[in-house]
Amino acid sequence: MEISETVGYVASLLVGLSLLMGDMKRLRYINGMGCLLFVIYGWQLGAYPIVFMNSFCIIVNLYHIHKLSTKTPG
């Protein structure tokens, strides 16, 4: 198994695991890490639609993490 294939499998595992999270902040962090690995995977393969889509997903995850972090209680 090549390193790029391993990166793709780990990315898939992280994105899948993120869907099992009940805590939204943890979901966003784990999903973001999976998306980052998919960016690396897509870059290694020259599959730029994978790079662009997962880059967008990272931005969305970061936005929601920021929103969750600055949320005032009450």
Automatic annotation (TrEMBL):
Keywords noted in UniProt: Membrane, Transmembrane, Transmembrane helix
Positions of transmembrane segments: 6-24, 36-63
Superkingdom of origin: Bacteria
Protein name as it appears in the record: Uroporphyrinogen decarboxylase
